Amino acid sequence: MLNQFRPVIRRFIDPIADRIALPADYITLTGFLVACAASAGYASGSLITGAALLAASGFIDVLDGAVARRRFRPTAFGGFLDSTLDRLSDGIIIIGITAGGFTGLLTGLLALHSGLMVSYVRARAESLGIECAVGIAERAERIIIILAGSLAGYLIHPWFMDAAIIVLAALGYFTMTQRMIYVWQRLK
Q1: pTM for the whole thing?
Q2: Which of 61, 86, 90, 162 is catalytic?
Q3: Alpha helices for the chain (secondary structure H)
């Protein structure tokens, strides 16, 4: 859904990417390490630390693709590494939020499962030759939901973080269903 704003985001990100001399794979790894730190922040009970580091990780994730496009040549391995570390980051963030007591175990597991299924359906569709970047809750939207829940949880009441994870799980399953219908329509 937020993919429609890519041209606007690129106008902001591309000048930054032009000044970075590090290979995109290093930036990808840095983003993953920052996501791990965000998870630790959440696990330690700090919504604001977790959210700040998650926002930084999300920014770095946008930056790595821009660096690959602008400064270096995008590679198949770079895309694979980015996608793999994104999945690991998504999972470790939910684990941190759950370990920090901001959501229940079942809710955390459902959010993990729905996130994995969103990614799996896309990967499986692409293995069939169908581009499947559709759905209401892609990765950027999921990160924004967690950030909004963190901010509301910090400013108002921690319950908002739990509500955000419930919404995240529900939208994940909805997105999975949207993608399944999209693929079904393309294959029939």
Answers
A1: 0.92
A2: 86
A3: 6-18, 24-43, 47-70, 76-99, 105-127, 139-155, 159-187
